[in-house]
Fold:
Amino acid sequence: MASKAPTLTVFRDRDDPGAYTWSPFVVKLEARLRFSNLPYTTRVGTLTESPKGKLPYVRIEGDDGQSSLLSDTALITKTLIKSRAIADLNAKLSPAQAATDLAIRALLEDKLYFMNAHERWITNFYIMRDQGPLSTIPYLPRLIIGQIVYRKALRTLHLQGMGRYSPAEISALRLETWTALNALVGEGWVLGGEGPTDADACLFGFLASSLTALANPETTAIVKGLPNLLAYAERVHEKYFSDYKKWD
Ligand SMILES: N[C@@H](CCC(=O)N[C@@H](CS)C(=O)NCC(=O)O)C(=O)O
Structure:
């Protein structure tokens, strides 16, 4: 499978080696790398250095000394598959299974993500500001940057559509979504095969970040009440992330 492994650095939202970050996309990427046994190191990144202005991004250094920065978890995965640094975990899926895998990722990344964003940036804004991603900024500038980020979150959620639902409607959507995901995972992987696929990396990313972030108490309570999802998260943690601090 693998050609010579590149040296990989994952730039994350948090400088806390040995801990999950609050970003579901960061955990998704780390899970995807671990599913393929590709070693990596982590560092804190900034949105301004990220090629697409989002976290995570990676630095890939080849044995020819060339290095490049790359954003977007799906594009990073595809690039690493193409260079044969990681296996294509979806290669053996039937077209219908591949469509399901893609649909699950879209549900998480393009729908649930915005329910999370509402819970974190609107309902629990002060936790995000003072204990979450903005907490490393000195207090006075943090107040100003916090306001800018809050207004940006409101605008984004309105444009995306999630912001037009009432908090009660978002809560109902959130419960419906996590309950549906709970029905997907039984004893094994999302698609029921012998090993994980891309949808598993994504689901675990959303689960671990939801279980460890302080700014989504409603989501944490929902997930903790769904036994299949909780058991799934624990299985993946034990097998692939036993060096990381687990959720309480
Ligand atoms: N499609 C991207 C999404 C990444 C993403 O949305 N990351 C969030 C953190 S969880 C981010 O960087 N948000 C900052 C912003 O949008 O300004 C991926 O798969 O990497």
Remarks:
- The domain at 95-240 is CATH 1.20.1050 (Glutathione S-transferase Yfyf (Class Pi); Chain A, domain 2).
- The pocket of glutathione is lined by residues 23-25, 47, 54-55, 72-74 (CB under 6 Å).
